[in-house]
Amino acid sequence: xxxxxxxxxxxxxxxxxxxxxxxxxxxxxxxxxxxxxxxxxxxxxxxxxxxxxxxxxxxxxxxxxxxxxxxxxxxxxxxxxxxxxxxxxxxxxxxxxxxxxxxxxxxxxxxxxxxxxxxxxxxxxxxxxxxxxxxxxxxxxxxxxxxxxxxxxxxxxxxxxxxxxxxxxxxxxxxxxxxxxxxxxxxxxxxxxxxxxxxxxxxxxxxxxxxxxxxxxxxxxxxxxxxxxxxxxxxxxxxxxxxxxxxxxxxxxxxxxxxxxxxxxxxxxxxxxxxxxxxxxxxxxxxxxxxxxxxxxxxxxxxxxxxxxxxxxxxxxxxxxxxxxxxxxxxxxxxxxxxxxxxxxxxxxxxxxxxxxxxxxxxxxxxxxxxxxxxxxxxxxxxxxxxxxxxxxxxxxxxxxxxxxxxxxxxxxxxxxxxxxxxxxxxxxxxxxxxxxxxxxxxxxxxxxxxxxxxxxxxxxxxxxxxxxx
Length: 470
Description:
Blueprint: E1 2-3, H1 4-7, E2 15-16, E3 19-20, E4 31-33, H2 46-51, E5 56-59, E6 69-71, H3 75-87, E7 94-99, H4 104-115, E8 121-125, E9 128-131, E10 134-136, H5 145-157, E11 162-166, H6 169-173, E12 182-187, H7 195-198, H8 201-213, E13 215-224, E14 240-244, E15 251-258, E16 263-269, E17 272-278, H9 283-298, H10 303-311, E18 321-322, E19 330-334, H11 339-349, E20 356-360, H12 371-381, E21 384-387, H13 397-405, E22 413-415, H14 419-429, E23 435-439, E24 446-449, E25 452-455, H15 458-469
Parallel strand pairs: 3-4, 4-5, 5-6, 7-11, 7-12, 8-11, 12-13, 13-14, 14-15, 19-23, 20-21, 20-23, 21-22
Antiparallel strand pairs: 1-2, 8-9, 9-10, 15-16, 16-17, 18-19, 24-25
């Protein structure tokens, strides 16, 4: 355990347990670093941190208290230095950062599974931290800076070699990863999203592009060239590889064959062609898999082994997850909540030419103007839509649904506020060979209502439904 004197030579021999920037999370023995957030100045909560047992305060403002208050010139730089010293971590792990509006979780999960056959690898992202068959939940897709240092330090102690991590636009905006170096950076796609945070599309794009700045000198950038915005990304580093259907891609996707629960395709690189059999259906998963394949290829793994391990990939929790309860219709659980993500999955299941039933909603406190486009698309392209709640936060669910149906005069929908009731209605309505899509929450374990996260899980509701049928 580090002492305060180890961090600041003129201070006392006070043991430091952990580092916190949120006063609500402070526990006895922690050091509280009062950073300046986008919407809050954490110096306003120094007294709260002291009440919660902080051993010391670090701030860039004058402050006097009953515990040591250390004033520094640059609070952000000090946070990095304190984290590096307390957690004894200075870019010791091989990091692979994946960003994009859609596909981060799937691409990261695929790559995590593949790399684990060759290296001791961890995953950090929407599905928490996964390492050596253990899974730990996290509060954010990309944890806060001090949390990352803590996690990386523990992973290093456990002999981890590589970390595949999702890097969100919000994390990049808030500089959560600006003190780390990445060996690979992957761009899955960029479509308009999170403008409630970024305000403009350009700001959103620029936040994503910041990840390139954190690349090692020898690092590699991997870009989905079929994506309109990604195709315009300019990188000074010469080690850039593109993928997609376009013939000019470094790794060209060809001869796609989609099946009920699998897909086959060819990846062409230079003068060689590699036939891939994937356990994941749908075309967008082929893109995610190709990005992961490129990393394995560049790591110089034998192609035969890569293809063998691809065939054995496990389902990804909450991502295009086919659920089998011996029902006579297809049931798919998916996290899709953006306009692009919803279109991707619906366009793919439309190819089966079966009746499509969708359960979905729209998050409160997010981009209201997008709701009508999502609603209109679903009403125009599926047979029955059950609109329901999806993290309403402080908004009225009826008002959210009103937004979603405002652009269409179609009547092929039901308004069921209770999400469990909406799921039950969809499953009761399903007939043989229908396709039921439960969209928006994936395997999330909460429903955000007001400022609370109420325990809730779509999969558990579905499981309960079928249990009660027996």
